[in-house]
Each structure stands twice: as structure tokens, then as C-alpha cells.
Specification:
single chain, about 55% helix, SLC12_C, potassium, chloride, 10-stranded mixed beta sheet, alpha/beta, symport
Length: about 1050
């Protein structure tokens, strides 16, 4: 009977009954005895408690192995070492203060603070000046919030805004922003150099002018700046080329100078609270005069008369007004603040004077004599552009992320604290300057009324040289930092190979320095120096920084609104609306400050963007909106086809295999709810059912089934598509669906199939279809999810609380980490907490393993409780042997009764025609027909025979031991969890009915006693990353 049965059922292996030690043998079992022993020898090092996952451990590492390698991640490039040399000491990791806060302070405080802030306050007044500073500080604060979100979304290697933008918005935006940031940094170096020359020539050594008295001629002053600026640029370029170590050491000196200078200013303000008698100005009527010694500041003095009465013909304004001496530093107690409240904007060529009377400010006779005039036309927006470079430098911390001990903590705290500190200094300085210094002196840009002295320096304590030397050294240091950083940024862009014509600048010198990039930087910097005027350079470089900051805000807003799975910033105090406000502010300030400079920066960004895009883009125009939409869709699909998505962009594109009942209705509606919750309304979902039969005969049923499937998807708010496939064999139909569904880059990468609950029933092959589907999914390198207990899963309109427990046994790409995070994005699971359990092997250090796992989760920006479970290497229990014996007895009985299957198939044929909807979801529990009495009799005989003869196979006993032990621990820890997510063990490699049936039994034992289980198997690629 058994031999006949084997011939009748092609799916069953050949059975030969033989008496050998009282045991019934399978010929393949005999042949595979040596195979089993060989496998046992190869896998002797596998923990007995994890034997069920032995096939997976060959390609998927155990968690302890994976975690130990990830937790010790270093994102700095290791230097070349001598193999014979002693191992170097571990590099010191910087904290928030040294690594982020102080570098940001140094980069934010700059030359504008010392040589232009008093002029901005005097021209704009206390109110408008406060608004100017506040607007600039708001731009950088909002940008810092967006930057903190991006910088804490994984490990950010050095690269600042370029790295963050290029990895968030793509190479086109990244290349454009990178070049803008490079240009801005280079022009900042030019501004620092011109500012340093201005400090020396105007306030320290005016005798060094080589173009005559520059106080009489502005062009002479700017020519001096150009010549000395070029010399200083060459000198600083040589320093950067020869000794970068000197630049880094000098940075500390420059920082100390900045801090001491600011402290000296504050002390001086309160030291001169009642003013001082050291500084007086000469005023004619209401106009401010220059080059007049205080002793000669009287109307009757011949010095004054010779100036205003040449050829015995006196100036009318001189005749009609008196000359007076005015104290320059009046002090906070004087009430001068009220004179400096309102703005005093002037046009170029107007006189600096008290009030707004035209007779005082207009140059009617076109004779300036020695009265101080405005050298540029001033407006509120222009002053924003001039002051804005004073608040740049917020990227200094993110550029050093590779040297930080905890970048995700230090960058947000250090950057935001630095901005708050500098903003406090700037805003308080506006008020203090307005309350201390006379209005005319504040508006005297170059201090000509007080003998060419720096206003801020004369406020400071103990004397002006503290500020002069400090501001010069700090400005020089800032220029060196810019000349050091800009070439490296250009080299980083060139090495990314997104802008081909920059390829020559990717090379380094023998010392590892970007020499070629440095030469180009010096050339561009020289172009900026040739402008010769800080007031022209400041608005220009402001454009480039504003564009850069605008793109940072855009990147954060786009990532937040798209809700990409990889967008998990550890910094939580951000919102897309704040990023959009920051972007709007950047654009508004650009346009208001200088629309033509804004056009230059914007045109440069567009040209670079289109150039990068042009390399691979294809342009095509259709007629009409639909034609354009189809062209855009075609273009996007072709772009997606270029290669697999980056790990950061991976998201589950779901294929749901849904079973239909006899009425062509989806049997498990909640599988759609689960897909919706998993997608949170984002991404692609395709729902497919397979009907058994001939398409030519049941085409109408297929149409009706598709309509029903669409209705269920609509009711459950599933965003996606549905389809029905008619096939002669269910397994082949499912295989075809999995292999061919989707289009180009929009092919599903994740399959959801239901658990075959009735797999134990005789006459049902649902477990064959299930395992065949699992193998097909694995062969297609797709991820697989098997929800068990789907009827107990929550509805999409419900909110639940509790725990989502992840049992992480083997690492299969991080899908187990990503799925609960995606579920928590849906309001149904949002209030649940994550708990991650992993099993320690005998040789593992569970304490270190827990620490490493916490570090890994920290880098992943996932908040979860961690527990490492230590499973004792206990002996295999009698219950395990008994359970294994029962499993094998069942297999032997089913094979012994195989003869009846041919007869039973006739009985079932009527039901099979009636039941056309079959797939890998849970089969109907009432499908198995009642067996005949003859079958029952034979079952009893076979049962009594096998109970006395069958011994459990040791290979099966070990796997059963794993399933039982793991199940005991999981039930103990997670019985009350809202959802248990665990690794799905791989199916048996041998295509044998007995092994496959045993596999189903192992899974059943593994999940016993758990109400809601999600078994997950990765597709063989990483889907989650610690990188930004």
C-alpha cells in the first residue's frame, strides 16, 4: 500500500517499509544520516538554544557578533600607520564645550562686531538696530534648529552643510549648496583680510598709507586696502600651505582675543557709566567735523576760519551756526539712549548731523570742507546685509562631528547655546552702545571726528589697544580658518565627482594637503579683495550664506513632510513650520538686502544644479498637462531604475497577498488595516489575490473579485493598487505575482502573507503553498512579514497602549528595528513603548552586549528599553522528546495513509471547483472533509504501530528544543505585549515533505501562547543605517 501511495502522490517521497531495529525508515533518511552528522559537526559551535536558526547563522550574524562590530564604529578616516610602530594612544574625543560651543563662538564673532556694529546702531537707531540684529539671529537660530535635526539624524561625518544637504536632497542640491558655501567661505576670508587691513591702516598705523591721505579721498583708502590686502592674502596663503598646524594653534589665540576683547568692552561700558573727558568731537551747528584739533574747535580760531573762509568768502552754514565741543562717550547715566532711539538713514553725499532737517544734511553748495559725509546710501535692508556675516559660522560644530565624543548630543546643544550667547552679546551691545555713545560719533564709520580712532576701542577698559590688537588677531585668525576650510570643502565636492570640471581639485599633495584647491581659493579670494570695501563684500557673501541656510531649512522641511523611514532625528525640538519660516526669512532677507546680489547667488545655484542634473537627465515635452505628467512619471521611473535605493531611502513597498473566501470577499480584513498602519499613509501598497482556474472561464469572477478588493482597500484607507491573478496552480500563481508585480523602481520589496492556520488538516496543502511562497520571496531578495493572530490586531481607528516587543535573534538587515518605528508613526500604535530582547550565547558578555545594543539604538535614534536574555544551556527535556515524537508520528501516519489521498481527492474535487480563491493567507478551517471509517481504522493501526517503533531524530529534537525554550522565554517576558515581532527562521533547504512539515511544527511551537505575533524575515540587504 505504501509503495502504491508513493506512486499516486508525486509530492510524497518514495517509502520503503523495512524491519530494522523495529523502526520504519525513509530511504532518504538513511542516505541523509551522514549529512546530518556532517552538519552537526559543522554547527557544533552553535548555541543549542538557537539551533532553529542554524541555517540563518551562515549568512545572517547573531546579534552579539553584529552589535560588537557596530558599537565600536569610528567615522574618522584612519591615518596611515607603521606596522612596526607602537599602537597610538586613542584620540581624545571632544565634548560640547571644546568641540562645538567655542568653535562656533570664534566663527560667529568677527570683524563686523568691532568695526561696524556701532555704525549700524547709530544709523539704524536702537529700535531698528535691535530688529536688524534680531532678524539675523532668528535666521541662524531657525537654521540651527533645522541643522540640529539633520545632524542628529544619524552619524554625520565632517562636511557641514554640504554633506547634510547632499545626503538629504540629493547630489544636485548638494552640489549647488556646496559651491555656494564654498564661495561664501572664500569671500568671508576676503572680508576678514580687508577688515584686518582696515583696522591697521585706519586705527593703528595711518602713516603706512601709500596713496596719500585717505581721510581726504575714499578711493585712496580702498586702493590701500587692495594693495595691503593682496600682500596679506599671499602671506596667509603661504602659512596655510606650509603650516596647517600653526593655523590650528593660532585659532586658540584668536578665540582668546575675541573673548577678552568683548569682556573689555563690557567692563569699559560700566566703567564709563558717567562718560569720560578723554574724547570730544567738534560740531559745526549740527554737522560733525573731522580733522579739527579740539583746542582749535572755536569759531573765532584762525584754523577754522582758514578752512571755511577761503579767499575771504565764508561758507553760509559756517556764518549762520556756532562751533561746539561735544563729549563722545556720555555714559549710560547721561540719557543719551533717547537720542539714539530712531533711525538716521542717509543717502550718499549727505552730511552726518543731528536731526533730519534738510538744511543740516543736504550739501547744497557741493562743498564738503571738512564735514563728514555718508559714503554709501543706507537703508534698513542694506544694514541687514552688512551685519549678517556677524552671525554666520554656525556650521563650525557640525564640521567637527568626527572628533566629537557624542555628536548627536553636542551639535544641537553647543550650536544653539553658541547662538544664544552671541545673540545676547549682539543685542545687549546694541542697547549699550545706544545708551553710551553720542549719536554723531556712532555714525562716524571710520572715527574721523576723533582723530581716526576706533569707537569700540575707546569704550573698552583699560585702553584702546586691547581692542585694536585683539580685533586684529581675531580677524586674522578667522581669515586663516576660512582659507583652511574652504579648500577642503572644495576638495570634498570634487571627490564626490558630481561636478566633473572640478575633478583636478580632488587631488592632494604628498603631504595630504589640497594644494590645487588652495590655489583656486586664493584666486577667488583675491577677486573679493579687489572690491576693497567691507560694505560691498558683506552683502555679497551674505547672499551665499543665506542661500546655504535656506537649503538647510528646506532639507529639514522636506524630510519632515515626506516622513521617510530614515528620518528619526534625536533632536526633537523641531517642526516643519519652523523650517519653512527659516526658509522664508532667508529668501526675504536676500531680496530685501540686495536683489542683484541675490540674483547672482541664485543664478549660480541654478546653473550648478542644472549642470549636475544634465549629466543624466533626459528632457522631453509632451502636449498638454497629461503629456507633461506622463513624461515626468516616465522620467522618474527611469531614474529609479538606475539602481537600488540607498539604505536611507529604503521604505517598505508592500505586496499584500490576500485570501478570498467562496463569496470572493477578503477573508481577513485586518491585513489591510495592518498594511495601512505600517505605511502611515506613505509609499506604495499593492494587494493581490490568486484565483484557481481557467481565466477564459472565470474572467467575470476575477473582475468582481478585483472590485471587491478595491472596496476593502478604500474602506481601510490603503493607498495603492489591487489586482487579481487567475492561475491553474496556486503556488505557481503566487510565484508569478511575486516575481513580476510592479514597474521599474516601484516594484514591491516587502511581502505580507497570512499564517496557514489549517496546515495540520489532512488533505490540505496550504503549508506547501506557504513554504513555496517563503522560498520565492527569499529568492527575489524581498522582505517577508507573516502576521499570526491577525484577527486580534487593532483597527486603524483605535488607539492602543502597552509594549511592542522585538525579539532580535539574528541580524537580517535591521528590518526588525525599522518596522516598530514605522508602526509608531501611525496613531494606532503611537502610545506604545518599544522593548528589544536579544538572546546571549554562552560565550557572550551579556553586560557588554546590552551596553553595545544601547549604543547601536542611540545611533539609530530609536528609543527602546533593552534586555539581554540569558538562556541556560539546559538538557533537552522529556517534553521536547515527546513533542518531537508526536510530530514525527504524525508525518509517518500521513505517509502511511497516503493511499487514501487519491480517493479523498475525488471527494474534494467538488469543493475545489467551488473554492476558486486560494492564496498563501490562512486557509479555511472547514475545508478538510470528514474521513471515511476505513481511514479511521487504518489510522488506529498505524498509530499503535508507530508509537512502539518510532524514535525521534536528533536533528529534529534540537530544533524542537530551540522552539520550546525560546517560546518559554518569550511567553514569560511578552505575554502581555500588544505585538511580538520576531525573526522568522529560514525554511529547510531540502525540498522534502517531512522537513517542510516539521518546519511548520517548529513555527507553531515557537509562537504558542502568543496572541499577536509578527514573524519577519529580511530580504538580504540593510534597510536601516546609523548615518545621516
Amino acid at each position: 500500500m505504501q509503495n502504491n501511495s508513493a506512486k499516486d502522490d508525486s509530492d510524497e517521497m518514495e517509502i520503503i517499509s523495512s524491519e530494522h531495529n523495529g523502526t520504519v525508515h525513509d530511504t532518504k533518511n538513511e542516505d541523509s544520516g551522514d549529512i546530518h552528522r556532517a552538519e552537526e559537526n559543522q554547527k557544533s559551535n552553535i548555541d543549542p538554544n538557537l539551533y532553529l536558526y542554524d541555517d540563518d547563522l551562515a549568512t545572517r550574524p547573531h546579534i552579539s557578533t553584529f552589535i560588537s562590530s557596530i558599537a565600536n564604529y569610528e567615522n574618522t578616516i584612519p591615518a596611515a600607520t607603521d606596522p612596526d610602530a607602537k599602537p597610538p594612544q586613542p584620540s581624545a574625543r571632544m565634548g560640547t564645550l571644546i568641540g562645538v560651543f567655542l568653535p562656533c563662538i570664534q566663527n560667529i564673532f568677527g570683524v563686523i562686531l568691532f568695526i561696524r556694529l556701532t555704525w549700524v546702531v547709530g544709523t539704524a537707531g536702537a529700535v531698528c538696530g535691535f530688529l536688524i540684529v534680531l532678524t539675523c539671529c532668528c535666521v541662524t537660530m531657525l537654521t540651527a534648529i533645522s541643522m540640529s535635526a539633520i545632524a542628529t539624524n544619524g552619524v554625520v561625518p565632517a562636511g557641514g552643510s554640504y554633506f547634510m544637504i547632499s545626503r538629504s536632497l540629493g547630489p544636485e542640491f548638494g552640489g549647488a549648496v556646496g559651491m555656494l558655501f564654498y564661495t561664501g567661505t572664500t569671500l568671508a576670508a576676503a572680508m576678514y583680510i580687508v577688515g584686518a587691513v582696515e583696522i591697521v591702516l585706519t586705527y593703528m598705523a595711518p602713516w603706512a598709507s601709500i596713496f596719500g591721505d585717505f581721510t581726504k579721498d575714499a578711493d585712496a583708502m580702498y586702493n590701500n586696502f587692495r594693495v595691503y590686502g593682496t600682500v596679506l592674502l599671499i602671506f596667509m596663503g603661504l602659512i596655510v600651505f606650509v603650516g596647517v598646524k600653526f593655523v590650528n594653534k593660532f585659532a586658540t589665540v584668536a578665540l582668546a582675543c575675541v573673548i577678552l576683547s568683548i569682556i573689555a568692552v563690557y567692563v569699559g561700558i560700566f566703567d564709563n557709566i558717567h562718560g569720560n573727558e578723554k574724547l570730544y568731537m567738534c560740531v559745526l551747528g549740527k554737522r560733525l567735523l573731522k580733522d579739527i584739533p579740539i583746542d582749535n574747535c572755536t569759531k573765532d580760531d584762525s584754523f577754522m576760519r582758514d578752512i571755511y573762509c577761503p579767499n575771504n568768502k565764508c561758507d553760509d552754514y559756517y556764518l549762520n551756526n556756532n562751533v561746539s565741543k561735544v563729549k563722545g562717550i556720555k555714559g549710560l547715566a547721561s540719557g543719551v539712549f533717547y537720542d539714539n532711539v530712531w533711525p538716521s538713514f542717509l543717502e550718499k553725499g549727505q552730511f552726518i548731523s543731528y536731526g533730519r532737517d534738510s538744511i543740516d544734511i543736504e550739501n547744497i553748495d557741493n562743498e564738503s570742507y571738512n564735514q563728514i559725509m555718508a559714503d554709501i546710501t543706507t537703508t534698513f535692508t542694506l544694514l541687514i546685509g552688512i551685519f549678517f556675516p556677524s552671525v554666520t559660522g554656525i556650521m563650525a560644530g557640525s564640521n567637527r562631528s568626527g572628533d566629537l565624543a557624542d555628536a548627536q548630543k553636542s551639535i544641537p546643544i553647543g550650536t544653539i547655546c553658541a547662538i544664544l550667547t552671541t545673540s545676547t552679546v549682539y543685542l545687549s551691545s546694541v542697547l549699550f552702545f545706544a545708551g553710551t555713545v553720542d549719536n554723531l560719533l556712532l555714525r562716524d564709520k571710520f572715527g574721523q571726528s576723533i582723530g581716526g580712532k576706533l569707537v569700540v576701542a575707546n569704550i573698552a577698559w583699560p585702553n584702546q589697544w586691547v581692542i585694536l590688537i585683539g580685533s586684529f588677531l581675531s580677524t586674522l585668525g578667522a581669515g586663516l580658518q576660512s582659507l583652511t576650510g574652504a579648500p577642503r570643502l572644495l576638495q570634498a565636492i570634487a571627490r564626490d565627482e558630481i561636478i566633473p570640471f572640478l575633478a583636478p581639485f580632488a587631488k592632494s599633495s604628498n603631504r595630504g594637503e589640497p594644494t590645487r584647491a588652495l590655489l583656486l581659493t586664493i584666486v577667488i579670494c583675491q577677486c573679493g579683495i579687489l572690491l576693497g570695501n567691507v560694505d560691498l563684500l558683506a552683502p555679497l557673501l551674505s547672499m551665499f550664506f543665506l542661500m546655504c541656510y535656506g537649503f538647510v531649512n528646506l532639507a529639514c522641511a522636506v524630510q519632515t513632510l515626506l516622513r521617510t523611514p530614515n528620518w528619526r532625528p534625536r533632536f526633537k525640538f523641531y517642526h516643519w513650520s519652523l523650517s519653512l519660516i527659516g526658509l522664508t526669512l532667508c529668501i526675504s532677507v536676500m531680496i530685501m538686502t540686495s536683489w542683484y546680489f541675490a540674483l547672482i547667488a541664485l543664478s549660480m545655484a541654478i546653473v550648478i544644479y542644472k549642470y549636475i542634473e544634465y549629466r543624466g537627465a533626459e528632457k522631453e515635452w509632451g502636449d498638454g498637462i497629461r503629456g507633461m505628467a506622463l513624461t515626468a512619471a516616465r522620467f522618474s521611473l527611469l531614474r529609479l531604475e538606475e539602481g537600488p535605493p540607498h539604505t536611507k531611502n529604503w521604505r517598505p513597498q508592500i505586496l499584500v497577498l490576500s485570501k478570498l473566501n467562496d463569496n470572493l470577499l477578503p477573508k481577513y480584513r485586518k491585513i489591510f488595516s495592518f498594511a495601512t498602519q505600517l505605511k502611515a499613509g506613505k509609499g506604495l501598497t499593492i494587494c493581490v489575490s490568486v484565483l484557481k482556474g481557467d481565466h477564459t472561464k472565470i474572467a467575470n469572477k476575477a473582475v468582481d473579485a478585483k472590485s471587491t478588493l478595491r472596496k476593502y482597500m478604500t474602506d481601510e484607507k490603503v493607498k495603492g493598487f489591487c489586482d487579481i491573478l487567475v492561475a491553474q496552480q496556486i503556488g505557481e500563481g503566487l510565484s508569478s505575482v511575486i516575481q513580476t508585480i510592479g514597474l521599474g523602481g516601484m516594484k514591491p520589496n516587502t511581502v505580507i502573507i497570512g499564517w496557514p492556520y489549517s496546515w495540520r488538516q489532512e488533505g490540505r496543502n496550504s503549508w506547501r503553498t506557504f513554504i513555496q511562497t517563503v522560498r520565492t520571496v527569499a529568492a527575489c531578495h524581498m522582505a517577508l512579514m507573516v502576521p499570526k493572530g491577525i484577527n486580534f490586531y487593532p483597527e486603524s481607528n483605535h488607539k492602543i497602549g502597552g509594549n511592542i516587543d522585538i525579539w532580535w535573534i539574528v541580524h537580517d538587515g535591521g528590518l526588525l528595528m525599522l518596522l516598530p518605528f514605522l508602526l509608531k508613526q501611525h496613531r494606532t500604535w503611537r502610545n506604545c513603548k518599544l522593548r528589544i530582547f536579544t538572546v546571549a550565547q554562552i560565550e557572550d558578555n551579556s553586560i557588554q552586549m546590552k551596553k553595545d545594543l544601547k549604543t547601536f539604538l542611540y545611533h539609530l535614534r530609536i528609543e527602546a528599553d533593552v534586555e539581554v536574555v540569558e538562556m541556560n544551556n539546559s538538557d533537552i527535556s522529556a517534553y521536547t522528546y515527546e513533542r518531537t515524537l508526536m510530530m514525527e508520528q504524525r508525518n509517518q501516519m500521513l505517509r502511511a495513509l497516503g493511499l487514501n489521498k487519491k480517493e479523498n481527492s475525488k471527494v474534494e474535487s467538488h469543493n475545489d471547483e467551488k473554492r476558486n480563491s486560494v492564496d498563501s493567507d490562512a486557509p479555511e478551517e472547514t475545508d478538510a472533509p470528514e474521513t471515511t471509517s476505513s481511514k479511521d481504522e487504518s489510522t488506529e493501526k498505524a498509530d499503535s504501530k508507530f508509537k512502539s517503533n518510532v524514535k525521534p531524530d536528533e536533528f529534529n529534537v534540537r530544533r524542537m528544543h530551540t522552539a520550546i525554550k525560546l517560546n518559554e522565554v518569550i511567553v514569560e517576558k511578552s505575554q502581555d505585549a500588544q505585538l511580538v515581532i520576531m525573526n522568522l527562521p529560514g525554511p529547510p533547504r531540502e525540498v522534502r515533505a517531512e522537513r517542510e512539515s516539521n518546519y511548520m511544527e517548529f513555527l507553531e511551537v515557537l509562537t504558542e501562547g502568543l496572541e499577536k505575533v509578527l514573524m519577519v524575515r529580511g530580504g538580504g540587504r540593510e534597510v536601516i543605517t546609523i548615518y545621516s
